[in-house]
From TrEMBL, chain A:
InterPro entries assigned to the protein according to its UniProt record, in alphabetical order: Glyco_trans_ALG6/ALG8
Keyword Endoplasmic reticulum: yes
Lineage, opening ranks: Eukaryota, Fungi, Dikarya, Ascomycota, Saccharomycotina
Descriptive protein name: Alpha-1,3-glucosyltransferase
Species of the source: Zygotorulaspora mrakii
EC number: 2.4.1.-
From TrEMBL, chain B:
Family membership noted in the UniProt record: Belongs to the ALG6/ALG8 glucosyltransferase family.
Catalytic activity: an alpha-D-Glc-(1->3)-alpha-D-Man-(1->2)-alpha-D-Man-(1->2)-alpha-D-Man-(1->3)-[alpha-D-Man-(1->2)-alpha-D-Man-(1->3)-[alpha-D-Man-(1->2)-alpha-D-Man-(1->6)]-alpha-D-Man-(1->6)]-beta-D-Man-(1->4)-beta-D-GlcNAc-(1->4)-alpha-D-GlcNAc-diphospho-di-trans,poly-cis-dolichol + a di-trans,poly-cis-dolichyl beta-D-glucosyl phosphate = an alpha-D-Glc-(1->3)-alpha-D-Glc-(1->3)-alpha-D-Man-(1->2)-alpha-D-Man-(1->2)-alpha-D-Man-(1->3)-[alpha-D-Man-(1->2)-alpha-D-Man-(1->3)-[alpha-D-Man-(1->2)-alpha-D-Man-(1->6)]-alpha-D-Man-(1->6)]-beta-D-Man-(1->4)-beta-D-GlcNAc-(1->4)-alpha-D-GlcNAc-diphospho-di-trans,poly-cis-dolichol + a di-trans,poly-cis-dolichyl phosphate + H(+)
Keyword Lipid biosynthesis among UniProt keywords: no
Protein name, as recorded: Alpha-1,3-glucosyltransferase
Pathway it works in: Protein modification; protein glycosylation
Protein's organism: Zygotorulaspora mrakii
PANTHER family per record: DOLICHYL GLYCOSYLTRANSFERASE (PTHR12413), DOLICHYL PYROPHOSPHATE GLC1MAN9GLCNAC2 ALPHA-1,3-GLUCOSYLTRANSFERASE-RELATED (PTHR12413:SF2)
Chief localisation class: endoplasmic reticulum
Membrane topology: Multi-pass membrane protein
Length: 544, 568
């Protein structure tokens, strides 16, 4: 027997997903003349799987009278095109009133106009509420708009990002493409946007464009993209402290005060905001309209958390009933304090050492503290911290990759109650398995349980006969224990949730267990991320 | 430069088992379809909630019939209009599947004999899973194909095998539209693999089994017959003609007996239980009452013919002098004598055009009889089969198989567009032998797969089918280009035609988008609905151009190109 060598930390430079199925698939496109093909193939398959997920039901399908997020989006397309802009934030607020910033409204307006051009019944004012047809036409159109938005906003941004990182860290082209594929096949975003139905990809994609601009040192465009991102969905504010501090630091200190940069960033930010809100002000009844839109966007009137979510408030609420002990205002104040304490260290670090390679860690730290401690968090909000985390798939550090993969799995797991409600169990299972399989987490299975000729190692790729790809688990023993036990608990909760009905006294027991596990894992990850952020801030890109 | 650095980095991670820098030896390479199976499995599972055609209810009904009724009633039962019309092996297969129906699915109405099936999600899941499970046969057979091929050919054979297992044809027809082609073609491919390995008896076994599962494979029968006859039964090696008595010795009698025993045995096992009922079974298997073309014309010669008829009708009605001119050249029985007669014929036709399967009557051009299509098919198949008599090599065999499929597809009676798989599958085995076959192959696959699009007419499948086919074409046109052999006569390629076929393929995209655009505009402009047939017609006419030119190109190479067919 030849001893099996584990990839050590010294092998950092090589492809992180060596010998994974993604590697096997993409390896044949390695010759320099055909690399352009790889990009098309990845993007095509990313789109195909999104189409296939889109065949399933969406949130609130056949579920009158309120339906779900799908109906909300459709409703906004309906009201934005039929009502004057002054009415957008006022119309029938009980029935899915518009509560996203203006760019969402404009986006809905354009898509609604196109949709109405095709079939005016879909978006007829008031009459189209809960429109559903047997041949799924409206659903098809809406799914198509998400796909289009993603193809424009998210996918090119991610591909560009992986190429940039790859180029600056001497990753092989194939390694860059594999990282791109791993990011594009992130299951949570696919399931929420194309299964549950939302347009998170636009907000996230614009943020990635902003990150790309920071990497390329285009500061004003970065501010522009990021403001657009905020103006699409207020959730992007979770990243705001980091962008603010990075841009400020870059204009003030590095290497010295740079007035043109400072001014261009400031002007870009102000102008973009102004341009986004100008129609509300000019066309739609002045300041009251703007104030109303802000009022709608930040719903402080709602509770500290909605449904069950894997953050601090919801989980500790199990033993400590906040709503009985404190008033709404008190809770708002406390959550504000907690969140600020959570993200301020990251802001300080990025302000003192604004380096490109720590941007992702800083964004993760900041957005995760919002997710864990802020007010009115949805379970879907996990997508916001998951974006910078997933972009770390471009890393070549085994520990980082393992933890990124782990937290992605946990993140998807916390979405289970939501997806179950939407009837997306099959899609959840398939995406869970597929995303892990693609990056090689199940590759240990094949040499053990398959006959030799079926083991997909050295087929068209160059993987050696005796090479075994390990699953993504850190070298550190404590980490291993923590991660494996979290997976075991996860499987247990999953089994309980599917096969055992919860005790009558606690109908939400399984969901709460899910949240508790999620919260525990997210917090551990968040702390590790801080440690990593602190350590990396002393290094340069070259030293990685 | 880039590749050089990345190669170095791969070497660094390769475990130092043998030699650090040595690339993996060819003999050590394993070409596994495992990854393809897993990846396609994920996609197929996600496709479960997708649209399915009436074929789904057809197969469900067969499950119910074979499960509930005694053997003698299988081909007589007609509660539903979807009566059993596949050969008995398939009926046995359905019976076998029906044994595994879980209780939950049974309660869902999966096994009820009704006029129209009444079932829900559990039945869909069960039936879709049977397709996925039975398709494993295809994977296994192709894996055997790879493993039994010589080391020097493994890379190209891997490309062939993987191109077949993830073919958009199987994805669209089996996993969305609903049929069991993956499984059935697996058996057919087994016979091709056996032929490659010179295991002629196995070749016969698999082919006759496939035939007893689905009689559409009958189209390929002449080719198999000639191949087995020449390669296995006849032996011209020591043949010297002295008198007619010598002819007896070219027949290898033991081989002949073995072969016929096997074939008769399989057909016996298949049809014996239905011997008393044979007229009934045959009438179910060969319903000659159907028309020349389907409601959607399969893209073959008759599509062009029908199109020409429509154009001529239009011309003669609008421009009467065209008719006057024509009548001077061609005598009246062949074309209508007067404009009035044209109008009369059109009226007659319009009465029956709304049905799904109907007789097509031409207005201007001569009517086509089943006999004529039969003669044309037989003629072109004979042309394809005769060279086998002189050269029973595997390459020749595959070539003639492809041409047989093409001839029957282009000239056959009531051809279904799904039958294009009968061409594409053998052609995939052939194309790696020579680069010059590639442009013909690309034409027939691109046109053939696009011609399947109207099967999935729902809007929700539009992007999926387009993107998947585009992805397949991008990957495999590239892969075949890289792996197919370059022959010495490559300079003789006609570049103009290559360009033309590239232009053709890109305009397929325009066709698809254009037709879809018209379709979407249907909601807005009601008048468009009258022209719904226009989209289908352009599909079938345009695709038939590609398929027919591919056939011409392949026939040319098959009959007149020597270097291509020389054994290596």
């Amino acid at each position: 027997m030849i001893p099996i060598k584990k990839p050590k930390k010294s092998d950092n430079i090589v492809q992180s997903f060596y010998a994974s199925p993604l590697y096997d698939f993409l390896y044949p496109f390695r010759p320099a003349g055909s690399q352009w093909l790889t990009e098309y193939v990845i993007v095509l398959f990313a789109l195909i799987i999104r189409c296939a997920i889109g065949l399933a039901s969406y949130s609130g399908m056949n579920n009158p009278p309120m339906f779900g997020d799908f109906e909300a989006q459709r409703h906004w397309m309906e009201i934005t095109q039929h009502l004057p802009i002054s009415q957008w934030y006022w119309f029938d607020l009980e029935y899915w009133g518009l509560d996203y910033p203006p760019l969402t409204a404009y986006h809905s307006y354009v898509l609604g106009k196109i949709g109405s051009f095709i079939n005016s019944k879909w978006f007829a004012l008031n009459e189209s509420r809960g429109f559903e047809s047997l041949d799924n036409d409206l659903k098809t159109y809406m799914r198509f708009t998400v796909l289009l938005s993603e193809a424009i906003c998210y996918i090119p941004a991610v591909v560009y990002f992986t190429k940039w990182v790859g180029k600056h860290r001497n990753q092989s082209p194939i390694g860059q493409f594999i990282a791109a594929a791993a990011i594009l096949f992130q299951p949570s975003l696919m399931l929420i946007d194309h299964g549950h139905f939302q347009y998170n990809c636009v907000m996230l994609g614009l943020t990635v464009y902003a990150i790309n601009s920071l990497l390329d040192e285009f500061y004003a465009p970065a501010a522009f993209c990021f403001v657009l991102s905020i103006c699409f969905k207020q959730m992007a504010l979770y990243y705001a402290p980091i962008f603010f501090s990075y841009l400020l630091s870059k204009s003030l200190f590095s290497p010295r005060f740079n007035l043109p940069r400072f001014l261009s960033v400031a002007i870009a930010t102000v102008l973009t905001f102004a341009a986004m809100y100008a129609p509300l002000y000019v066309l739609g009844g002045g300041l009251t309209n703007v104030v109303q839109s802000v009022h709608r966007i930040f719903p402080f009137a709602r509770g500290i958390f909605e449904d069950k979510v894997a953050n601090f408030w919801c989980v500790s609420n199990i033993v400590f009933k906040y709503k009985q002990k404190f008033t709404q205002e008190q809770l708002q104040f406390y959550s504000l304090i907690a969140t600020t304490i959570g993200f301020v260290p990251a802001v300080i670090i990025i302000f003192l050492r604004p380096k490109k390679h720590v941007i992702l860690y800083a964004l993760t730290a900041c957005s995760m503290s919002f997710y864990l401690f802020s007010f009115q968090v949805h379970e879907k909000t996990i997508l916001v911290p998951l974006l910078p985390i997933t972009l770390l798939y471009t890393s070549t550090d085994w520990t980082v990759l393992s933890l990124v993969n782990w937290i992605n799995n946990i993140g998807l797991f916390t979405l289970w109650p939501l997806l179950k409600k939407d009837g997306l169990m099959l899609q959840y299972g398939v995406c869970f398995a597929l995303s892990n399989w693609l990056i090689g987490n199940f590759s240990f299975v094949t040499p053990k349980f398959l006959p030799k000729f079926l083991t997909p190692g050295p087929s068209i790729s160059s993987v050696d006969d005796n090479y075994r790809r390990r699953s993504l688990l850190p070298e550190n023993f404590l980490w291993k224990v923590a991660i494996v036990s979290s997976y075991v608990i996860m499987v247990l909760i999953q089994i309980l949730d599917i096969f055992v009905s919860p005790p009558k006294r606690y109908p939400d027991l399984w969901v709460l267990l899910n949240c508790a596990l999620g919260f525990a894992c997210f917090s551990i990850f968040w702390l590790w991320n801080y440690y990593k952020l602190y350590k990396l801030s002393y290094k340069t890109m070259k030293q990685l | 430069m880039k590749t050089a650095t990345s190669r170095k980095s791969t070497a660094a991670i390769n475990p130092p088992s043998k030699d650090e820098t040595k690339p993996v030896v060819m003999a050590n390479r394993r070409f596994s379809l495992w990854n393809f199976w897993i990846a396609s499995l994920a996609l197929k599972l996600l496709l479960m909630p997708d649209y399915f055609s009436t074929d789904f209810d057809v197969h469900r009904n067969w499950l119910a019939i074979t499960n509930a009724l005694p053997l003698s009633q299988w081909y007589r039962e007609n509660t539903s209009q979807w009566t059993l019309d596949y050969p008995p092996f398939f009926a046995y297969f359905e019976w076998l599947l029906s044994l595994f129906v879980p209780n939950k699915v049974r309660q869902d109405g999966c096994l009820d004999i009704l006029e129209v099936g009444n079932f829900g999600w559990p039945t869909v899941v069960f039936q879709r899973l049977t397709v996925i499970a039975s398709e494993i046969v295809l994977f296994v057979v192709l894996q055997v194909f790879i493993n039994t091929s010589p080391l020097s050919e493994r890379t190209q054979n891997f490309v062939v095998a993987s191109s077949i297992v993830i073919s958009p044809g199987f994805l669209m027809i089996d996993h969305i539209h609903f049929q069991y082609n993956g499984f059935l073609f697996g058996i057919l491919i087994a016979s091709i693999v056996a032929a490659r390995n010179k295991q002629y008896l196995w070749c016969a076994v698999f082919y006759s089994t496939a035939l007893c599962f689905k009689h559409i494979f009958l189209y390929l029968a002449p080719c198999y017959f000639m191949f087995l006859l020449r390669a296995y039964v006849l032996n011209f090696k020591d043949f010297k003609f002295k008198s007619y008595k010598d002819l007896i010795f070219i027949v290898q009698w033991t081989n002949l007996f073995k072969l016929s025993a096997i074939v008769i045995g399989i057909f016996g096992a298949c049809f014996a239980p239905f011997l008393n009922d044979s007229p009934q079974v045959l009438s179910r298997l060969f319903p000659f009452s159907r028309g020349l073309t389907h409601a959607y014309w399969a893209p073959n010669f008759w599509a062009v013919y029908s199109f020409a008829d429509k154009i001529l009708t239009f011309l003669m009605l609008k421009l009467p002098y065209v008719h006057k001119f024509a009548i001077k050249i061609i005598s009246p029985p062949l074309i209508p004598a007067s404009i009035l007669e044209i109008k009369q014929r059109m009226l007659q036709n319009n009465n029956g055009t709304k049905g799904l399967v109907q007789d097509v009557a031409f207005v201007i051009l001569p009517q086509i009889t089943p006999k004529l299509t039969f003669i044309l098919t037989a003629f072109y198949q004979a042309l394809a089969v005769i060279p086998l008599l002189f050269d029973p090599s595997f390459k020749r065999f595959i070539g003639s198989l492809t041409l047989c499929g093409l001839a029957s597809y282009i000239f056959g009676w009531h051809v279904h567009e799904k039958a294009i798989l009968l061409v594409i599958v053998p052609f995939s085995f052939l194309v790696v032998f020579d680069r010059r076959l590639l442009s013909s192959f690309m034409l027939v696959t691109a046109a053939g797969y696009v011609s399947l699009f109207p099967l999935l007419y729902e809007h929700q499948d539009f992007l999926l089918k387009c993107l998947y086919t585009a992805a397949w074409c991008t990957i495999y046109f590239y892969a075949f280009k890289k792996t197919s052999k370059l022959s010495s006569s490559v300079e003789r390629r006609i570049f103009f035609l290559d360009r033309l076929s590239t232009i053709y393929m890109f305009s397929l995209l325009a066709l698809v988008l254009g037709v879809q655009f018209l379709d979407v505009m249907n909601w807005r402009y009601q008048t468009f609905q009258k022209f719904e047939f226009l989209g289908l017609m352009s599909y079938s006419v345009y695709c038939s151009l590609g398929i027919i030119s591919s056939w011409i190109g392949l026939s040319w190479l098959y009959n007149f190109d020597e270097p291509l067919w020389m054994s290596d």
